[in-house]
């Protein structure tokens, strides 16, 4: 079983790396850049395999394990596409969101699906307002449309309370990177998506601890 899971995870990881690198090129405005090295692709495959093995060891064949497969794919695709091309594609977001909702319906029922969709709308609206105000204040795009759409998927996966924590955490993680770029004189946009999706993944893994923290604070 371990060998099968490793091979499946490895194959999926290579697939995620390919999608994150090649799918953005379907957009005419996106210019092709140097391909990822085979070492990086192998590393991504191994990392994805380890994620699946650890998740299966901790959870077994249940909602958390199956969701981990979906979330790991989304994380890797967003990391590659946003860091390399500064773009977050709609298709991975839609596919992952639909798969998570299907899993939630199967394991938790229709009510949970409705609450998850509502959470997604809440986070989407919040980020849209932040992006709108930021654009008005700084006279340039403050948040990309992909980041705003990604926040909706985070709401679906984490629900709105943990989703807000993910947004706050991602901002704190992105701040040193943004400050370093300014200090080094790099006049370019900071890819926010990887920090956003990375924070979501951390909170999903340690959801019990973050939920306990919320209950203590509230």
Short note summarizing the structure:
The protein has helices at residues 2-22, 38-59, 63-85, 90-108, 110-138, 145-158, 160-183, 193-205, 207-217.
How would you characterize the overall build of this protein?
- There is one protein chain.
- 81% of the residues lie in helices and 0% in strands.
- The chain starts with a helix and ends with a helix.
- It is built from 9 helices and no strands.
- The model has no long low-confidence stretch (mean pLDDT 89).
- The chain is globular, with a radius of gyration of 18 Å.
- It is an all-alpha fold and 218 residues long.
- Number of E-type strands: 0
- Beta-strand proportion: under 5%
* Biggest sheet overview: none
Helicity level, as a percent range? over 70%
Q: Whole-number radius of gyration? A: 18 Å
SSE sequence, one letter per element: HHHHHHHHH
The overall pLDDT, averaged over residues, is: 89
Q: List the uncertain runs.
A: none
Shape: globular
**Which structural class is indicated by helix and strand composition?**
mainly alpha
In whole angstroms, the N-to-C terminal distance is 43 Å
Total helical segments: 9
Topology overview:
Blueprint: H1 2-22, H2 38-59, H3 63-85, H4 90-108, H5 110-138, H6 145-158, H7 160-183, H8 193-205, H9 207-217
Keywords:
9 helices; 0% strand; globular
């Amino acid at each position: 079983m371990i060998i099968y899971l490793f091979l499946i995870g490895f194959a999926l990881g290579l697939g995620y790396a390919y999608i994150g690198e090649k799918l953005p090129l379907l957009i005419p405005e996106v210019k092709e850049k140097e391909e990822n090295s085979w070492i990086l692709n192998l590393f991504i495959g191994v990392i994805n395999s380890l994620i699946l093995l650890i998740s299966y060891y901790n959870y077994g064949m249940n909602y958390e394990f199956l969701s981990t497969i979906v979330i790991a794919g989304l994380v890797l695709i967003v990391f590659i596409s946003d860091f390399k091309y500064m773009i977050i594609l709609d298709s991975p977001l839609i596919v992952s969101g639909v798969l998570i909702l299907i899993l939630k319906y199967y394991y938790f029922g229709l009510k949970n699906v409705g609450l998850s969709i509502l959470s997604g709308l809440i986070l989407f609206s919040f980020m849209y307002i932040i992006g709108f105000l930021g654009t008005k204040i700084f006279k340039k795009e403050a948040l990309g449309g992909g980041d705003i759409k990604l926040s909706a998927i985070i709401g679906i996966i984490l629900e709105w309370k943990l989703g807000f924590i993910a947004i706050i955490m991602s901002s704190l993680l992105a701040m040193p990177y943004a400050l370093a770029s300014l200090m080094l004189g790099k006049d370019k946009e900071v890819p926010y998506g990887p920090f956003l999706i990375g924070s979501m993944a951390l909170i999903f893994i340690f959801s019990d601890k973050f939920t306990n923290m919320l209950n203590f604070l509230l």
